[in-house]
Design brief:
Chain B: Keywords: 4Fe-4S, Iron, Iron-sulfur, Lyase, Metal-binding, S-adenosyl-L-methionine. The complex is a heterodimer of chains A (about 260) and B (about 300). Chain A is about 40% helix and about 25% strand. In chain A, strand 4 and strand 5 form a beta hairpin. Chain B has about 300 residues and is an alpha/beta fold. Chain B has two domains: about 210 residues, Bacterial phosphonate metabolism protein PhnH (Rossmann fold, 3-Layer(aba) Sandwich); about 45 residues, no CATH class. In chain B, the strands form three sheets. A seven-stranded mixed sheet of chain B has the order 1-9-8-5-4-2-3. A three-stranded antiparallel sheet of chain B has the order 7-6-10. Chain B has a two-stranded antiparallel ribbon with strand order 11-12. The chains are: A alpha/beta (about 260), B alpha/beta (about 300). Chains A and B meet through helix 3, helix 5 and helix 6 of A and helix 5 of B.
Chain lengths: ~260, ~300
């Protein structure tokens, strides 16, 4: 007997092949290749200007690559080149099978409409047409991200920073995506709120078998959340490997510098 | 008398041809907003410059024009537009819905059933139904192109979450021909069902926003809703105080400062023809007598 789920997990979800992007003379991203498997959390670390965010935009199809390509295995099991997708298909992918958690929740949320509608928007976009069920699902998700359901009709502009970030996560996960991109999801939050958010993310990722690509400059976040780490410098991946291996036994001088620059607890 | 200084119906022929091309395109793609080179008209934006340009482009010498504003034939806006075309095109005008071939309207659809020889021209302030949810024009156009209308339901969801029911009472979004979501201009949602499968051609002109869109005759027009919160037309629960009509759209008129009010048909032609046919409402006596003495109306 063949375990279909195990077989699925054996094939990469997203494959990047020698991705490059240059803005004029500046090469923001050079020759990046990797594979991401279902349920795997990959952290991209590096200092500001190292090309992390550009890479994330290339991977999520928001920027066209100057060279190389990204292929994604769709829900029907067929791997397709992102550049070959039509705009309608790409946008559909973006609001069903993918999630994108922005550093600034105001970018990922509709600040003027209620939390319930924020979570329900993706459902309505894929044709849900029953108010009661949309609301029920929304309040279920608010509970899962530890937001009091009494606040379901409040607009996120009345929420605290941490709540906004959790709401943004709920809004992205409601369609049960298989891949979530995160750009500094803990940036701008205080340490205790960060800890709770990371805790929540870790349990959701395990529970939903999510694949995550997370961009961060915070090595602690990478250590807590990710299975694998890629270190970027000057647009190149200079070191990649298992998280504990890279962070505890860094090979490259730059990675050693990065790791040693964390204050000991 | 025709004013010789102007071309027939004010606009020059080249402009009319440009507008007609936009209208033809709009008819070919029901509900799609066609951009057009809107002209300055001798009236301020917001007074119906879009509707006036559409009317000017389709008007012929044999047409009979009716203009209504909030259902009424005798408000400033309706009278001045009617006079404008009487002067610049010399066409016959009327207040009777039945007799008109072109009806320009602001915020109402007449109560009398329209027929196949008529064109209804709407004045539209904001043609984009997604405007207040998505401020970027580039984005709303893309959403129309890809038929991404989840956001429209977000608005209805917000209504129910806040008020317990869909509280949008006018400019209620509709889906035309199962494709484009369209703003029916600020008509009350009471009028939405009249747009569905209507024998008359419906044209929408937005002068400031430079858009024309259309619903061809006998086109399916569906008001958006939720399965568990279906679309319901709204009407004050009262008969018309002048003609006793139970099924027309009513205006609420405050009559004193002690809470007194009366409800009357917003469609004046409908109300007057019903009164002439002998229908009476609870308050119809006084105005009915006055009219008989004065005899100026009609």
């Amino acid at each position: 007997m063949v375990d279909q789920a195990a077989l699925e997990n054996d094939q990469p979800l997203l494959v990047a092949t020698s991705l490059s992007k240059s803005f004029g003379r500046i090469a923001a991203c050079r020759d990046v290749s990797f594979s991401l498997y279902p349920g795997e959390v990959l952290a991209i670390v590096g200092e500001s200007g190292s090309g992390k965010s550009t890479l994330l935009q290339l991977l999520s199809g928001q920027l066209a690559a100057s060279g190389g390509h990204v292929s994604y295995r769709m829900r029907d099991g067929v791997a397709r080149d992102l550049a070959s997708l039509g705009e309608a298909e790409r946008r559909f992918l973006y609001r069903t099978d993918w999630g994108f958690v922005h550093q600034d929740p105001a970018q990922g949320l509709r600040m003027a409409v209620s939390a319930g509608a924020n979570v329900g928007e993706r459902l309505m976009a894929v044709g849900w047409n029953h108010y009661g069920r949309i609301r029920e699902t929304a309040s279920d998700w608010l509970t899962r991200v530890e937001i009091d359901t009494a606040r379901i009709d409040d607009a996120p502009r009345t929420y605290s920073g941490g709540m906004r970030q959790r709401l943004q996560i709920a809004r992205n996960l409601v369609t049960e995506p298989r891949l979530v991109f995160m750009d500094e999801p803990t940036g701008g939050l205080d340490v205790s709120v960060q800890a709770r958010l990371l805790d929540l993310l870790r349990s959701l990722v395990a529970e939903l078998n999510l694949a995550v690509i997370i961009v961060t400059h915070d090595l602690a976040v990478a250590r807590l959340l990710s299975h694998r780490v890629m270190v970027m410098k000057g647009g190149r991946v200079i070191e990649a490997g298992l998280t504990d291996q890279v962070l505890d036994d860094p090979r490259e001088p730059y990675t050693q510098l990065l790791v040693s620059s964390i204050l000991p607890p | 008398m025709n004013a010789p200084a102007y071309n027939f119906a004010y606009l020059d022929e080249q402009t009319k041809r440009m507008i007609r091309r936009a209208i033809l395109k709009a008819i070919a793609i029901p509900g799609y907003q066609v951009p057009f080179a809107s002209r300055e008209m001798p009236m301020p934006y917001g007074w119906g410059t879009g509707g006036v340009q559409v009317t000017a482009a389709i008007l012929g010498p044999a047409d009979v024009l009716k203009v209504i504003d909030q259902g009424s034939d005798d408000t400033t806006n309706a009278i001045s537009i009617r006079k404008f075309f009487a002067k610049t095109a010399g066409v016959a005008t009327t207040t009777a819905t039945e007799d008109a071939t072109v009806i320009q309207t602001r915020h109402r659809i007449p109560e009398a059933t329209l027929h196949a020889d008529q064109v209804l021209v709407y004045q539209v302030p904001i043609p984009e139904p997604l405007r207040f949810l998505e401020p970027r024009e580039t984005e709303t156009r893309r959403m129309h192109a890809l038929a991404e209308y989840g956001l429209m339901h977000v608005k209805l969801y917000e209504d129910i979450a806040r008020f317990g029911h869909i509280a949008t009472a006018y400019a209620y979004p509709v889906k035309v021909n199962a494709r484009y979501v369209m703003d029916p201009s600020p008509t009350p949602k009471f009028d939405n069902p009249k747009m569905d499968n209507c024998p008359a051609l419906q044209l929408f002109g937005a002068g400031r926003e430079k858009r024309i869109y259309a619903i061809p005759p006998y086109t399916k027009v569906v008001s958006l809703d939720f399965e568990d919160h279906p679309f319901e037309p709204y009407r004050f629960n009262a008969p018309c105080a002048l003609c006793g009509a139970e099924n027309s759209y009513l205006d609420e008129i405050v009559t004193d400062d002690k809470g007194g009010r009366m409800f009357v048909c917003s469609d004046t032609d409908y109300c007057e023809s019903r009164q002439a046919a002998g229908h009476h409402g609870s308050l119809s006596a006084a105005p009915y007598k006055e009219k008989a003495q004065g005899g100026t109306n009609g």
